[in-house]
Design brief:
- The protein is an all-alpha fold.
- It folds into four domains: 93 residues, Rna Polymerase Sigma Factor, Chain: A, CATH 1.10.1740; 101 residues, Arc Repressor Mutant, subunit A, CATH 1.10.10; 72 residues; 93 residues, Tetratricopeptide repeat domain (Serine Threonine Protein Phosphatase 5, Tetratricopeptide repeat, Alpha Horseshoe).
- It contains 20 helices and no strands.
C-alpha cells in the first residue's frame, strides 16, 4: 500500500510541461546557443533541463515561473558541464562574470532566434544538414520526424545531425547574426531553409499528419524576424508575401473529414483576406525596389490566384508568363510542370500534355508529375492512361491526405 504522505504525480504538471516544451524550448535553446557559442551543447542542455522537469514537476507541481525554472536549470547544467571540462575554464570565467538572471537572458529572444537560424544555415554545412539541423534546433522536431521528412532511417538522420553539430563546433562557428556586409552571402541559404520548413508544415512529406501548422507558423515568424532585420531586402519581402498568401488558404485546404481539397474546389469566401491584403502590400513594396527574385515571382503567381474570383477565371495567361520568368531565374523541371498546368487553362490540355511529356526523364519519381499527367490525360478522354498515371502517383505519394485524394480519383 503506498505511503499516504507520498506526493502523487500531478497529470496537470505533466501537461503543462509538454505545452511549455512546445512553446518555449526553442527560445531557451537559442538563448543558450548565443551565450555558449555551441549549438549542440545548447540542445543537450535544454534536453537535460526538460528531463529534470519531468522528474520534478509531476510530483512537486508546476513551478510559478515554468520558463524561468527551465532556463535556470539549463544554465546551472551549463556551468556544471564547463566546470568538469578543462577546456571550459576560460568560458566559465566569462559566463560567471556576466551571469544574467534567468528572465533577463530570454529578453532578446528575437536576436537569439535569428542567431540560431544563421548558425544552423552556416555554409560549413551541406544544404541537407542545414535543413535538418534547423528542423531539430529551431523547430523542435524529433530525429524520428526529421528522418521521415527526409525518407531516411532514424539512425542515419541521427548521425547526420551529430556530424552537423560537430562541424559547427570544429569550424568555430559563432552563434550570432552576421555583420551587415556578410548578410547577403548568407541570406539565400536562410531563406531557402525557411521556405522548406514552411513547405514541410504546409504539406508534410511523410508521416501520419498531413500538415504541421506549427511548422508553417514558425517559418512565417522567422521570416518576420528577418524582415525586421532587413526591412528593405526584396526577397525577404517576397518570401514573406508568398508564405502569407499560402497561409491565407489554410482553413479551406482540408474538409471536415480531414481530406485534402484542391485549389479549384476551395471556398474562396473563407480565405483570410486580411493576410492576402498584408501579403499584397509586402509584394508591392518588394516590386518597387526593382530587384526581382524567384520568391517575388512565386508570390506574384500566388497573388493572382488570391485575386481570382474562381479557379476558372484565374489569369492563367499571366501566370504562364510568370512561370517563364521563374524558369529563366531558376531553371527546373518542376517549374516547367507548374507552367504546364497554366498552359492547360490558357491554351488547352493537348498543348499542356506536350509540355509535360518531355519532363518524364527527370520527374518519373515525382508524384505530382504523374498526378498532373493523369488530369491532362483524363481531360483528353484517355481514361486507361490516366488511371495508370494515377496509380504511379499513388505509389510515390507518402502524405496520407495526398494518398487519399489520389485514391478517390482512382475510385471515380
Amino acid at each position: 500500500m503506498p505511503d499516504a504522505a507520498a506526493p502523487r504525480p500531478d497529470p496537470v504538471a505533466a501537461d503543462e510541461l509538454e505545452r511549455t516544451y512546445r512553446a518555449e524550448a526553442t527560445r531557451i535553446r537559442a538563448a543558450l546557443a548565443a551565450r555558449l557559442g555551441d549549438v549542440g551543447l545548447a540542445e543537450d542542455l535544454v534536453q537535460d533541463a526538460f528531463v529534470a522537469a519531468l522528474e520534478h514537476w509531476p510530483a512537486e507541481g508546476t513551478p510559478p515561473n515554468p520558463v524561468g525554472w527551465l532556463a535556470t536549470t539549463a544554465w546551472r547544467k551549463a556551468i556544471d558541464r564547463l566546470r568538469r571540462a578543462a577546456a571550459g575554464e576560460q568560458k566559465l570565467a566569462l559566463l560567471a562574470a556576466a551571469r544574467p538572471a534567468a528572465a533577463a537572458w530570454l529578453e532578446d529572444d528575437d536576436d537569439d532566434l535569428l542567431s540560431l537560424v544563421f548558425a544552423c544555415c552556416h555554409p560549413a554545412l551541406p544544404h541537407d544538414s542545414q535543413v535538418a539541423l534547423t528542423l531539430r534546433c529551431v523547430c523542435g522536431l524529433t530525429t524520428t520526424e526529421i528522418a521521415a521528412a527526409f525518407l531516411v532511417s532514424e539512425p542515419t538522420m541521427g548521425q547526420r545531425l551529430a556530424r552537423a553539430r560537430k562541424s559547427l563546433r570544429e569550424a568555430g562557428v559563432v552563434v550570432r547574426v552576421p555583420d551587415p556586409d556578410q548578410l547577403g552571402d548568407r541570406l539565400d541559404a536562410v531563406l531557402g531553409v525557411i521556405y522548406l520548413v514552411f513547405n514541410e508544415g504546409y504539406l508534410a512529406s511523410a508521416g501520419r499528419t498531413p500538415a504541421r501548422r506549427d511548422l508553417a507558423a514558425q517559418a512565417i515568424e522567422l521570416c518576420r524576424l528577418l524582415h525586421r532585420l532587413m526591412p528593405a531586402e526584396p526577397e525577404v519581402l517576397g518570401l514573406l508575401a508568398l508564405m502569407l498568401l499560402h497561409e491565407s488558404r489554410a482553413a479551406t485546404r482540408f474538409d471536415s473529414w480531414g481530406r485534402l481539397v484542391k485549389l479549384a474546389d476551395q471556398d474562396r469566401a473563407r480565405w483570410d483576406h486580411d493576410l492576402i491584403a498584408e501579403a499584397t502590400e509586402l509584394l508591392d513594396r518588394a516590386i518597387a525596389l526593382r530587384a526581382a527574385g524567384p520568391y517575388q515571382v512565386q508570390a506574384a503567381i500566388a497573388a493572382l490566384h488570391a485575386a481570382a474570383v474562381s479557379y476558372q477565371q484565374t489569369d492563367w495567361t499571366q501566370i504562364r508568363l510568370l512561370y517563364d520568368r521563374l524558369q529563366a531565374m531558376t531553371p527546373s523541371p518542376v517549374v516547367l510542370l507548374n507552367r504546364a498546368v497554366a498552359t492547360r487553362f490558357a491554351v488547352g490540355a493537348q498543348a499542356a500534355l506536350a509540355e509535360v511529356t518531355p519532363l518524364a526523364a527527370e520527374l518519373d519519381d515525382y508524384r505530382l508529375f504523374h498526378a498532373v499527367r493523369a488530369e491532362l490525360l483524363g481531360a483528353l478522354g484517355r481514361p486507361l492512361e490516366a488511371r495508370a498515371a494515377n496509380e504511379r502517383a499513388l505509389a510515390l505519394a507518402a502524405n496520407p491526405a495526398e494518398r487519399e485524394l489520389i485514391g478517390r480519383r482512382l475510385a471515380e
